[in-house]
Each structure stands twice: as structure tokens, then as C-alpha cells.
Specification:
The structure holds 2 protein chains of 2 kinds.
Chain A lengths: L4 E9 L2 E2 L14 H11 L4 E5 L6 H15 L4 E4 L5 H9 L4 E4 L1 H5 L2 H10 L4 E9 L9 E2 L5 E2 L5 E5 L4 E6 H11 L3 E6 L11 H10 L4 E4 L5 H8 L6 E4 L1 H4 L5 H10 L7
Chain B lengths: L1 E4 L6 H10 L4 E4 L2 H6 L2 E4 L5 H10 L3 H9 L4 E4 L1 H4 L4 E2 L13 E5 L10 E6 L17 E6 L1 E5 L5 E7 L1 E9 L2 E4 L7 H12 L11 H4 L5
Parallel strand pairs in B: 1-2, 1-3, 3-4, 4-12, 5-6
Antiparallel strand pairs in B: 6-9, 7-8, 10-11, 11-12
Classes of the chains: A alpha/beta, B alpha/beta.
Chain lengths: 270, 219
């Protein structure tokens, strides 16, 4: 039976892990390779490396990191952050990453999804979406989005880009449906409302997206307890659940989490 | 020495890394002489059936693959590298595959709550003993990424299946030609063991000379 995936996310800057797990056994907690190996040993199903380097020579640094990780880590991994062109994708996939993720670049140029899928297959193309619950007027008056859409539903979500700083005015469900039609093979869905709260994933958002697209959905943002993962993978309909700080700071071990999920009759790889 | 056939397939680097971890000398090549003199040959693959076959033919690899498999050199097709060993695929109707295995590739059946491609870790069941799975307990998990799966004309070549809406062929074995739909190079320790098992298979011409060789079927 296909299992649900548990995915730690590692933020990387200049080839170094910014928030890394603090295993005593690690010689260098900032080394993406050591971090990746440690997570793999613990039973992570995949890894996501999110590059937050802002400098112009970031691409070379990332490609170098990908090569070193691929030499030592034998579970699938995704690399995202700053990928703007098919050449960017190629340079990362060529070094041994299994998938790339795009966010802002796909919003600004949706054809990038089609070009990427044509070149490498849709299974390599992860669309990262930063979603925020729509603010509506207290009296229920419809609001007009930036692209002229009139929104009346309170339970809608808007796509943000550029690290959550810019409101694109696009509806999340409309965007993910379009993106999948173009070539996105998986959705990495982050709730900006839930992110950092540790109060659980946004289950309504996750379920709405999982029902809207034919591709796997990775829930992200808000994980605080084991139960949150269970809910995301059942009520939320997610195929995978991602967390960063919860794993980094050892508040929850991946093996412990997966044992719990198995006890709850959720298929996991142990 | 292992020859990993280079026809611009996406997962070559990962396959090479996995072999390196096993301490195995390996080269990526499309040179017929190198492939024919290798102790083991691996055909990786990610992408679409039609394009892959076009590149195999453009690079003149079809007769080389045919010859090396006929010689009994242990041969392993991975993912799309398994599919193109069959005769044809629903993915690209009308394009002829290598036909080393009789049968076709079908699309994973659509179904409620079943997403295509299948992406993730799924477990293996063994309809019969396969040499790739020595020391790999049944229900071990391996990593899959695929929309198509092979349906061999001869069900006896199937050594592993995985359940995804229906039992899908996960691995086949015919003489010294092996193939798997999952990615051993991305399947952590289980995948390493499967690759190790493949590397321990000796050329079929040595059949009957030792205990290991006696277990070789089809020679």
C-alpha cells in the first residue's frame, strides 16, 4: 500500500543549513549532507531543501550542495528557492535532485511549469503555494481582488508570492488547478495563517486543494503535535506532511511520529 | 566494471552515486565496446517511453542492448528503463520498445483517491523468488514514481508486485535480465541491498559452475 510521507524541510543559506537538527552525533550541524543523512536514518521519506540565499552566485552554491547531498543521501529530495528558468531546473536536477519546486517564478510565468514538465516530466515539478485565508469585510460585503475578481466566499484563500510579501490577488484553487493543467506534478501547500503557530495544519485549505487537483499534495505550515499530522493526512486528504522547526528542534522525532501514525492505522514506511 | 547506459536519462547521477556507495567501479557510457565488455549493465530511465526509445535508436543502442542481454551479462532496467525493455506502451502508441520482454506497458488504472503518477514508498510482495530480493523481506518499502506499469505476457517473469488500486508489476527477471519499476537508487537501505544483489549475479555463461550460478533460471 502506498504510504503517507513525512518530509522534513531544511532552510539553506549559502550552502549551509540555517535551522538544523542538533544531533549530538553530528560533527557539523550546518552541513546539508550530514543533516540529510541524519534525517534519512531517522526514517524521513523525502527531504526538501529550501534555498534562501539572496546573492547572485546562489545558483552555483546550490548546485554544489545538491551534488554533495546526492552523493550521500539515498532518499528522494526536492530543492526550491530562486529557481526561475528551465536552465535553473536543469542545473539542479542534473546534480542529482529528484524534484525542483517553484513558487514566485511560476506565478510570474506560468509557462515555466509547462516547459519544466516537457523537459523533465511532471513528476519533477513541484509547485509551492503560499496561501492565506481571505480577509472579508465584517459585514460580509464582497471584496474585489486585485485582478478584478469579486470574492464573496469567506472560506477562500489567496496566493501570495515572494516569500509571502506580495498579494497576487489570485485564488488558490484556481491557481493550483491551472498549474496542474500546465504541468505541476505535486503541490507543496503552505498555509501562511497556520505557519509558525504550531496549532495544526489548515485542514480546510488542505482538503480543498487535495480535492481540486489530481496530483499529490504536501501539507505545510502549523504542525505542532503528532495529532496534527494525523489530521492533515486523513481529514486534510494530504499525501504527505512537511515540517521544519518541529523536527529541527527535536520537539518531535520522525520515528516516534511514524510509530504513532502507524498505530492510528495510517500507512507509513517504518 | 558496471556500465550505466547514458542516453540522457535523468537519474543517471543518482544511480552512479548509489553504485559508488557500494564501492562499485562504474562508468556512464553509450560506447558499444564499453557496454559489451562490462560485467554488469544498468539501463536507467526517467521520462516518456517514445522519447526514450528515440534516443536509444539515435545513439544506436538497440542492437547493443540486444547483444549484451543475449550474452547473459547481468542487466538491470530501472523505471522507464524497465518499461522500454517491453514491446510497447500505452504512453506512446505505435512506438516499438526493445521487446526483450514480451508484453506491454499500461497506464495505472484511474480510481477514487488514487493519484497518477504514483509517487512515494510502497511495499513489495513476491509471487516467486527473485534474485534481486535475496535478504529483502517481503513488504519492504521502495520508492516509486510512475504513471505506467508493465504487463508481461509471461506472468512467470514477475518477481515482485506492489498494490496500487490493482497489483502492479514491480520487478521482473528473465535469465540474467532484471528490471524494476521502483528506484533502488532512491530506496535507502532496501534499495542498496537490491543493487548489491544485482551486482552479485554473475554472467549466465558461467551457469552450473557454482552454487550461486545454479540458481540462475532460464539458462
Amino acid at each position: 500500500m502506498l504510504t503517507k510521507r513525512i518530509i522534513p524541510c531544511l532552510d539553506v543559506k549559502n550552502g549551509r543549513v540555517v535551522k538544523g537538527i542538533n544531533f549530538v552525533s553530528l560533527r557539523d550541524a550546518g552541513d546539508p549532507v550530514e543533516q540529510g543523512e541524519a534525517y534519512s536514518r531517522e526514517g524521513a521519506d523525502e527531504l526538501v531543501f529550501l534555498d534562501i540565499t539572496a546573492t547572485s552566485d546562489a545558483r552555483r552554491t546550490v548546485a554544489d550542495m545538491v551534488r554533495r547531498v546526492a552523493e550521500r543521501v539515498f532518499i528522494p529530495f526536492t530543492v526550491g528557492g530562486g529557481i526561475r528558468t528551465v536552465d535553473d531546473m536543469r542545473s539542479i536536477l542534473r546534480e542529482g535532485a529528484d524534484k525542483i519546486s517553484v513558487n514566485s517564478a511560476a506565478i510570474l510565468n506560468p509557462e515555466l511549469l509547462r516547459e519544466g514538465a516537457d523537459a523533465f516530466g511532471a513528476q519533477c515539478i513541484v509547485l509551492a503555494v503560499d496561501a492565506r485565508r481571505r480577509r472579508v469585510h465584517p459585514d460580509g460585503t464582497p471584496i474585489t481582488g486585485r485582478n478584478g475578481d469579486v470574492w464573496t466566499r469567506e472560506d477562500g484563500w489567496t496566493v501570495y508570492r515572494s516569500g509571502g510579501r506580495i498579494d497576487t490577488g489570485q485564488d488558490v484553487l484556481a491557481w493550483v488547478e491551472k498549474a496542474c493543467a500546465l504541468g505541476a506534478g505535486e503541490i507543496l501547500l503552505t498555509s501562511m495563517d497556520a505557519d509558525g503557530t504550531k496549532k495544526g495544519y489548515d485542514l480546510t485549505l488542505t482538503r480543498a486543494v487535495a480535492d481540486a487537483v489530481p496530483v499529490p499534495v504536501i501539507a505545510s505550515g502549523g504542525a505542532g503535535r503528532k495529532e496534527d499530522f494525523r489530521r492533515a493526512l486523513t481529514q486534510g486528504g494530504a499525501d504527505a506532511a512537511l515540517a521544519a522547526s518541529l523536527f529541527h528542534y527535536r520537539e518531535l522525532g520522525i520515528r516516534e511520529l511514524k510509530e504513532y501514525l502507524r498505530g492510528e492505522k495510517i500507512p507509513v514506511r517504518l | 566494471m558496471v556500465a550505466v547506459i547514458d542516453y540522457d536519462a535523468g537519474n543517471i547521477r543518482s544511480v552512479m552515486n548509489a553504485l559508488r556507495l557500494l564501492g562499485q567501479e562504474a562508468v556512464t557510457t553509450r560506447d558499444a565496446a564499453v557496454i559489451l565488455s562490462a560485467d554488469h549493465v544498468i539501463l536507467p530511465g526517467v521520462g516518456a517511453f517514445g522519447e526514450a526509445m528515440e534516443r536509444i535508436r539515435t545513439y544506436g543502442l538497440e542492437p547493443v542492448i540486444r547483444e549484451v542481454t543475449e550474452r547473459g551479462t547481468p542487466f538491470l532496467g530501472i523505471c522507464l528503463g524497465q518499461q522500454i525493455l517491453f514491446e510497447e506502451s500505452e504512453e506512446t502508441p505505435g512506438v516499438r520498445g526493445l521487446g526483450i520482454f514480451k508484453g506491454i506497458c499500461r497506464r495505472i488504472p484511474e480510481g477514487e483517491e488514487r493519484k497518477i503518477p504514483q509517487i512515494g514508498w510502497n511495499d513489495l510482495s513476491y509471487p516467486r523468488a527473485g534474485r534481486l530480493f535475496n535478504g529483502v523481506p517481503e513488504h519492504s518499502y521502495v520508492y516509486f514514481v510512475h504513471s505506467y506499469y508493465v504487463v508481461p505476457a509471461d506472468p512467470l517473469v514477475v518477481t515482485a508486485v506492489t498494490e496500487y488500486g490493482a497489483p502492479l508489476t514491480a520487478s521482473v527477471e528473465q535469465g540474467n535480465v532484471f528490471a524494476c519499476q521502483f528506484h533502488p537508487e532512491k530506496s535507502a537501505e532496501v534499495g542498496q541491498q537490491i543493487l548489491k544483489n544485482f551486482l552479485s549475479v554473475r554472467n549466465g555463461s558461467a551457469c552450473g559452475k557454482g552454487t550461486e550460478e545454479k540458481r540462475i533460471s532460464g539458462c
